[in-house]
UniProtKB/TrEMBL annotation:
PANTHER family: TRANSCRIPTIONAL REGULATOR, MARR (PTHR42756), TRANSCRIPTIONAL REPRESSOR OF EMRAB OPERON (PTHR42756:SF1). Gene3D superfamilies: Winged helix-like DNA-binding domain superfamily/Winged helix DNA-binding domain. This is MarR family transcriptional regulator. It comes from the Bacteria. One of its GO terms (molecular function) is DNA-binding transcription factor activity. Residues 4-136 form the HTH marR-type domain.
């Protein structure tokens, strides 16, 4: 049996260790990883519907509702009613979240530095290009599979 790690296992391990290192550095904030992720996605998608954000985070809507409740209690985000659909909540950052977002960027930069130590600028660019290509390939393959299922379903 080959002892070389497979690409899938290696990518999974690297992603897990990146999250772990980020959490170690962000520990003093008092936020969970899910809360950090929610703030990060919301900072790029303010005004998003709560259900759409749950889809982006790949969590159940009820799970995100609990996270949003806690972040709202801390004064970091706010829910606003949708202008035409009273069943829908739109999410926005509050000013108290802005310093945490900046802190998150600093922690993220330090974590990336830890991960990329020893790689030249050229190898870093190549790594990002390769991962971006892999992502594009997989997005296209998943879309093709969904299209085939729709035609055959």
């Amino acid at each position: 049996m080959d002892n070389e790690p497979t690409l899938g296992f290696l990518l999974h391990d690297v992603a897990r260790l990146l999250r772990k290192r980020f959490e170690q550095r962000a520990k003093e904030s008092g936020l969970t990883r899910t809360q950090w992720q929610t703030l990060a996605y919301l900072s790029r998608n303010e005004g998003i519907q709560q259900g759409c954000l749950a889809d982006m985070l790949e969590v159940e809507p009820i799970t995100l509702a609990r996270v949003v409740d806690k972040l709202e209690q801390r004064g970091l985000i706010e829910r606003r009613a949708h202008p035409t659909d009273r069943r829908v909540w739109l999410l926005y950052l509050r000013e108290g979240a802005r310093p945490l977002i900046e802190q998150m960027h600093v922690v993220g930069d330090a974590t990336r530095h830890d991960a990329l130590e020893g790689l030249s600028a050229e190898k870093r660019r190549s790594l990002v290009e390769a991962l971006s290509m892999m992502k594009s390939n997989l997005v296209a393959a998943c879309a093709q599979t969904n299209d085939e299922e729709a035609l055959n379903g």
